[in-house]
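Write out this protein's structure.
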Amino acid sequence: MKKDIRALILEDNTSDADLLVRHLTKSGLTFVSKIVDSKKVFEESLDTFLPDIILSDYSLPSFDAVSAFKMIKNNNLNIPFIIISGTIGEENAVMLIKEGVTDYVSKSNFSSLIQKIIRALKEAEELIQKEELVEKLKIQTAALLKANKELELQNAEKEKRAVELLNVNKELLAFNFISSHDLQEPLRKIQTFISIIMEKEMETMTEAGKNNLKRIHVSATRMRQLIEDLLNFSRVSIVEHPYEMSDLSTIIEDVKSELSDTLYQKNAVFNVKQLIPVCIRPFQFRQLLFNLISNSLKFAIPNSELHITIESTILKYKEFSLLNLPNSPQVCDYWNFTFKDNGIGFEPQYNQIVFIIFQRLHHIEEYSGTGIGLAIVKKIVDNHNGIITANGNLNEGVTFNIYIPINKQNLQHLN
């Protein structure tokens, strides 16, 4: 969020405008404000003041919030619009929110205003980022489609690359749909309606009603987590980051530092054995290690010390071929990374399906999550032309083995 927020205040009552500015100042929000009270000055300010947010009274002598919002909408401006009024009434507020107004606050109760402003600015910023990403994805998709046609005329190796590019293309298109306005807008309205109910109705609500409202809040929160996880999944599908010779010890320590509080709560103990440097995409492998460690923390046995063992080694091709792993046509040596914990594990019959996106082995009320974490891990391994296997045992933990083909850069470093 920007440090200096430009707030355009549409208000004809000087006392109310001053009260609003004092409340914003008292909250600690860093802002620059401009107060206007007519259609002409409001319209001019959109071009000259360039507001980040608009705080509008509902009704003015010669202008009103509805007309001001229509002006914003007709000009396709992505500016959060919050109505601040003591006369609008809850029914009209809900109707305007359905029309696209960001939110509503009563003049008699400013307690939720700052929170709503911060949330509105964050959502506006996220929308801009998503629009930029969608535009980038369109360009990448067009380039990939062109590349696919060219690759059809090449040899078998290039034909394989064409399939990979086609898969990336499909995932980019899927993310384009997921991150669209159709997914974000209903969630924003749900959260806005929850906010209105909690502000207006909580004291008179029955216990059953309060319980249902809490369940709605939990579902909305989980939906936001799902969107964020899908965004992470899409990011690892875009193979842009270069390979680098990396020491995993540094990456592991970085992830441990980020998860330090949870590691302490779970009494986690790490046993990091010999780690052989490998040529990988460090950015993606950091996400891989973060997801594996987070998965172990989530499924640790309660009131028991969590043990995580990490090691790597080099498998000669003859050793590797004895494993009889599927989809391993490359005749070369392999870097083998092993990650093991002593958590609740799972039955061996689930060894293959744990990497399927949205696949969950436990009820959401038992263990939170969206079922995307291990799917991201597999996608990262796929990006490295590698193979990942899971070997679980109920109440005895799980062992993940990753096999990455050793390329020329790896060979030069090892020699």
